[in-house]
Amino acid sequence: MKKMMALFLTGILLLGCTGTAFAKDIAVKVDDKQVEFTDAKPFIDEKGRTMVPLRPVADAMGLEVEWDRRTKTAVFSESYQKGMEGFGYDINRKAVYGEITYMSLSFKVNDPKVEMLGKVKKENGEMTMIADHFQMDTTAVVKDGRTYAPLRYMVQSFGYDVSWDKETKTVTVENYRMQ
Question: Which of 1, 43, 108, 150 has its CA 20 to 30 A from that of 37?
Answer without folding.
Answer: 108
